[in-house]
Amino acid sequence: MRIARFTDGSEPAFGVVEGSVERGEATVAALTPHPFGPFQFTGARRPLGEVRLLAPVLPSKVLAVGKNYADHVREMGGDAPPDKPILFLKPSTAVVGPGDPIVHPDPTSRMDYEGELAIVIGRLCRDVPEERAMSVVLGFTCANDVTMREQQASDGQWTRAKGHDSHCPLGPWIETDLDAAGAGLRTTLDGEVRQNSTTAHLIHGIPKLIAYMSAAMTLLPGDVLLTGTPAGVGPMRPGQTVAVTVDGIGTLTNPVTAR
């Protein structure tokens, strides 16, 4: 099931995307009150092309992991992958949706794309054991962990470099039925493939990440966990377009603009 958050000019709502997106036959069936518990369909239905897709959730926090693909560790100058996940937070104000601009705050500095698979938490949880980790997952979406690379290097920690407004695009929807153990992941810049990998190469897998993260803090419904980026990260500039595709979900596309 593909769960989207959308607007047709009125208040934002959740809905289920049905039909073929590729053939232009998809519709959005509105639901109420939200997908984090029992819900019902309202009966309202609109063609997908007639609504604006929003970020699929508004998380209380985005909890991310760094250096979780060995090839990315090497391209960033590291040798051995980390023994334990390296965690950092992105603020909720960084979240934008498909089609929203990624705003470059300082065109003299390097701003990188980082395509990722994102986990969307479905219920309140804490101290989740690995063997039950998937039971707290609502589904998965595409993410771009936009990073101000020079700020990351100069600050010694990653809050400012990862936390700018618009620097966490999510979407286009939440896929609840994805086999996330080996999903293909690609990032393109102006149509040119820059990252091409699979989640089978994650150093710390999804159940381990959920267990590790939930041991540190309570996870709320709608919270987003970023799983890391593979090799191929690089700069993007105003006027370009970046797209992150995860097989089985879809494609998250965002233009880059100057502030």
UniProtKB/TrEMBL annotation:
The residues covered by the Fumarylacetoacetase-like C-terminal domain are: 61-256
Any one of the GO BP annotations: carboxylic acid metabolic process
Superkingdom of origin: Bacteria
* Enzyme Commission identifier(s): 5.3.3.10
InterPro entries, sorted: Fumarylacetoacetase-like_C, Fumarylacetoacetase_C_sf, Rv2993c-like_N
Q: What is the top EC class of this enzyme, as a single word?
A: isomerase
Return the protein name. 5-carboxymethyl-2-hydroxymuconate Delta-isomerase
